[in-house]
């Protein structure tokens, strides 16, 4: 029987995320966000451009969450 629900995303427990890992993830997400916004700016108007903007919104929310995150904390 086929699985109807996908596996949930894997989260790194807060106690195991070091400051170096956090800084690396922040930089990586920020770079992806800038690249995605560059693609959005050069795309032709239409559904693909709208999707790029939506994806950039998700990346911005992830960046925001990482900025609020405290290594070894509960959040």
Give a verbal description of the structure:
With 75 residues, the protein is mostly helical. The chain has helices at residues 19-42, 47-68. Helix 1 runs antiparallel to helix 2. The chain starts with 18 loop residues before the first helix and ends in a 7-residue tail after the last helix. The model has no long low-confidence stretch (mean pLDDT 80).
Layout of SSEs?
Layout: H1 19-42, H2 47-68
Characteristic terms for this protein:
about 80 residues; mainly alpha; 2 helices; about 60% helix
Give the helix/strand class.
mainly alpha
Uncertain residue ranges: none
Following the backbone from N to C, one meets helices and strands in this order, namely HH
Number of distinct beta strands: 0
Range of strand content: under 5%
Global Rg = 16 Å
Helix content: 55-70%
Termini gap:
37 Å
- The pLDDT mean sits at 80
Helical run tally: 2
Global morphology: flat
């Amino acid at each position: 029987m086929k699985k109807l629900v996908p596996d949930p995303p894997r989260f790194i427990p807060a106690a195991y995320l070091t400051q170096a890992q956090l800084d690396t993830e922040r930089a990586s997400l920020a770079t992806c966000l800038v690249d995605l916004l560059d693609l959005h700016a050069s795309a032709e108007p239409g559904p693909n451009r709208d999707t790029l903007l939506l994806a950039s919104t998700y990346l911005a929310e992830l960046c925001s969450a990482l900025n609020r995150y405290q290594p070894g904390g509960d959040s």
